[in-house]
Amino acid sequence: MSMYNNAETSPSQNDLLYTSLSKNIKIIQQSLGHSNDIIIREIRIGEAEPHSLAIISIDGLSDKTTISDSVIDKLMANIEEEQDIEITTINQYVRNSYLTVGDVTNIEHFTTLYSAILNGETVILLDGFAEGIVTSTRSAKDRAVTEPSTESVIRGPRESFTETIRTNTALIRRKIKSPNLWIKSRVIGDVTQTDVAVMYINGIASDKIVAEVLARLDRINIDGILESGYIEDFIQDSKNSMFPTVYNSERPDVIAGELLDGKVAILVDGTPFVLVVPALFTSFLQSAEDYYQHWMISSLIRILRFFGISLALVAPSLYVAITTFHQEMLPTPMLISIASQREGVPFPAVVEALIMEIAFEVLREAGLRMPRTIGPAVSIVGTLVIGQAAVDAGVVSAVMVIIVALTAICSFLFPAYGLSNTIRVLRFPLMILAAMFGLFGVMFGIMVIILHLCSIRSFGVPYLSPFAPLVLQDQKDAFVLFPRRKLLTRPRLVNQKNIVRGHNYINVKNRK
Amino acid sequence: MVLAVAFLIIAIIVALIFIPKLKKQQDRKAVVVFTILLLIGTALNMGIALKVHIPSPLDLITFIFTPIRDYIVSFTK
Amino acid sequence: MEKEIISSRQFTIVTFLYSIGTAILIIPSSITGAAKQDAWIAASIGVLLSLLLVKLFLTLANQTPSLNFIEANEKILGRFFGKITAICFLIMTFLSAGELLYFIGIFMKTEVMPETPTLAFALLFSIIIMYAAYLGIETFARSAEILFPMFIFIFIFFIISISPQITFENIQPLLEATKTSMLYSITRFMSIFSFPLLVLLMLYPASVNVQQAAQKGLYIGTILGGVVLITLIVLSILVLGPENTAARTFPSYALAQRISIGNFLQRIEIIMAFMWISSIYIRTFMYFYTTVVGLAQILKIKDHRPLILPMGIIVIGLSQIVHPDIVHSTNYNNEIWPIFSFIFTILLPILLLIVAVIRNRKSKAQNNETPQQETKNDNQKV
Q: ipTM of the assembly?
């Protein structure tokens, strides 16, 4: 794949290559600041009328073996045998007859030349010709395809994407061998020139959404894209919402599944995290493993996940609200036990809760960055000191520690990291509301969150579908999972085109 | 007293944020209506905060409709 | 302001929750006071009569297919008179919105959290309403769709938990109430349950995508709402007894307080309260939204959204002054509101309907509007 930036017209400097080889080389060295990883190999070919050639590449980005075997070797070996090579046609000669590398193109501008060598390709310049030849010699040095680090499953493929975009598209193509799997590429980022590829299955994905994705990508105007998260920020529907409307995953099987559903994938060179749009609330509720196990088990686990996440969101607030305002709701023995625990604690419930939650968040963040050698030791210290000692010192009550621990574990129930972060943050306002207004405050907070979720769209599809607006047909894969033989249709609001999966199912009516 | 001042401050902040936005949209009517409503609302709430006795509009409705009600009830006696 | 569309299913759900509104909390008390243990009969008759009302509203709405109620006022009665009736209607909805906010405040303060000022509850609740009004009808309809299953779930749980405490003697003897008291009960019931359904004409037919299904939806929503209310009244009488029900301000809450499952799950009435907070939210939103959008339409302001904030502030203030105490509120709702609402939710639509039909006939006589007459007949297949 050779992709070149459109040559930007810079009136100050002539962008066209010169016919004089030495002049070209001088300009190139100057523009690149005489960086010492630029390899310029000059050779002479031809016996009767020697022509000067320069072979330019960047060390590390280009594949040295390919260059020496397929380019230099071929050029030096064969051309010596020719007796008379006409001056005007040597360019074509070299290009058509001697290079054994695939993917050869001509260029005429400096900017395209830089773009080419910075992508790892090799440029051949001939003296006397204002043209260069680009050969594709990209290095295949790449991190190996290993297990995903953030989304592991018990049953299912163990591949994960790597940082090279070509490997990633290949991994997806291996899963979906349909000629309808199309790739559209873009280069985004003025300075980083990052390759971005948009993949979708033509005929299943909605054309509107594909066009919208490409339009939004083209509107991005920034100097650098380092990770897919940058792009996520630019193409999201609602910039102010904390809820993610773009799904991302490290796993090819997950992405392939989403593509089959009619969604669009966005791959960014340099990161193994591939984006998927449109992303609905239910996408974050599901894990790839759900589809590899028995449907009843998956349904129960999904319900458990949802319940756990709700708990992670409201458990501290409920504790604060009930112990402060609504003590009558607890059964009497439990009330007495909690009261006795809280007796020594000098703070009101909400301060206690805030202290514990903040302490836990600090621990969690610190734990992420800790060097692996001290990590386990510090976490033990954290649990013992902060948890146990705090209770013994009477700073917090034991119930609070339990709730914080429960909340923490539950917040990891969601397979998608983005949404659980949001839940983490939303806990705190809910706690404050609970402290001020009891359960009414909690209801208020939840109502605001629900209203907010109802108003968000992801690329035109309402975020909470298929719950609201209610699409009965899609309930089979939303909250609970139906057996595979019943999953006959694709999500209705994501694509209206190709609703029915497969053509081997009999008696399938295309329900509207 | 504090509540009344709080209401006033909130009203001023709202006015400062929204009126320029509305002015940009060139809808004079909207600006006028917005300001009038904001003034009424602020005055009303400040009055409540200062424990001024403001009669309920429903009393006016009651006043208007009580004769009708009595008339209808007399039918059913 | 782009046209927002809601589906007929969403419309049905909104109708259902809207018709329950505040009725779920105060109706049992007010109608049991008059009809005693036959209150449920009064309610049932009321629900049946409400269906006639729905037909009236639908017929009127179909006269002006693409306009909502406020615009229809102006179209049918002409610019001057139409504006006057529309303004009176909006005064009614605005005051009702304030009343409902007062209601939430006084309910929470009396029964749940006595130390919090009512202003706090009104403030929080109005923030939700304002936010929903800002986000628009579509979002609101979706939020109603989400609240609906929770509501049903809690309601069924409620019925099942309270049923063991039924004593059938409480509902006997049957049919003891006098005709007058029945009449009063039915009127009061309908004035809170079905008269305000007119406000739903702000949504239909302008914002609904499938008209036929939406019409059915209006009926179904009303019937279901009625069923819920009748069930609640019956349960109140059966469990608490007619005198108790009439004496309390919020008998449903008292019912919820009595739930005790296995001596473990007790005093969970605040979860039941979620149910009526939802229905009040729907109704308050409709009143508030109608007022804001109506005002914008009368004044020919294009975008109604800037008006939300100042009107919200006024409504908060209204909620504090509209009733000085609960006695005033009960008195108003029992005596004055039926008449006030009757004029603007029954007489006004009838007037509009008559004028519209006359106008249609006149233009039909001029051989101009024959196609419209036929479509009108089509739409009337309810």
A: 0.87
